[in-house]
Design goal:
By secondary structure, the protein is of the alpha/beta class. The protein is built from eleven helices and six strands.
């Protein structure tokens, strides 16, 4: 079983790599320290399972999972997070993750999750089984008519990068588009979300789980 690790915490990744080396039939084929890199490595390495942290820079685990699931539905994703909130669980499962494990779980639980999703099943940590999953889409996902639901994939990417302190120039370079295109996305974001500043966009991005204080490292961009 080929496994891709996607987490921006080096000690966590090193610990998992060491533990997985002791598991027969499992191999860590790559590591990504941000969501954008995770999507790229998923394309290049075709892993069976991606272990995906939620709070990563540049492109959060939720958006990375959504892109992997849309482009490579055969790749299974197990979300790992310190958070057991309904917001995060619902977001990852609706994005296409097949499993969700909290980071303070035992390694045996993660192994069970990886094996379960690889075999076509779903796995939730016991700590979050109490979360009502059956109606999470209706309760927690943006309503079909809401502004957040109307954002395109690229607009959500730009929203996260703006919230994490990206400038127009740096975002344009990262996404391989023109500065004018980034400015247009920013204007459209403000119109659709009825907000008037990058600071307000940042607050919304954190509140909606697009980014987090843990994953964002900078101040609001320009």
């Amino acid at each position: 079983m080929k496994i891709l690790l996607a987490d921006n915490h080096k000690l966590f990744c090193e610990g998992l790599r060491t533990l997985f080396m002791q598991q027969p039939g499992m191999e860590i084929v790559g590591e990504a320290n941000n969501g954008r890199m995770a999507v790229r490595l998923a394309r290049e390495l075709s892993p069976d399972v991606v272990i995906m942290d939620i709070g990563m820079p540049e492109l959060n685990g939720m958006e990375a999972t959504r892109q992997i699931h849309a482009e490579m539905p055969g790749i299974k994703v197990v979300a790992v997070s310190m958070h057991a909130d309904r917001q995060y669980v619902a977001g990852m499962l609706s994005a296409g993750a097949s499993g969700y494990v909290v980071k303070d779980s035992a390694f045996t639980e993660l192994i069970q999750a990886v094996q379960t999703v690889r075999n076509g099943g779903r796995f939730l940590s016991p700590d979050i089984v109490g979360v009502v999953v059956e109606d999470y889409v209706q309760r927690l996902a943006p309503a079909p008519g809401s502004a957040l639901a109307r954002l395109s994939d690229r607009e959500r990417e730009v929203l996260q990068l703006l919230a994490e302190g990206g400038t127009t120039a740096s975002i344009a370079q990262r996404l391989h588009v023109s500065r004018k295109t980034v400015e247009t996305h920013r204007k459209n974001l403000m119109l659709k979300l009825e907000l008037h500043s990058v600071a307000e966009l940042t607050k919304l991005a954190i509140r909606e789980g697009i980014t987090s204080l843990e994953g964002s490292g900078g101040k609001a961009g320009r």
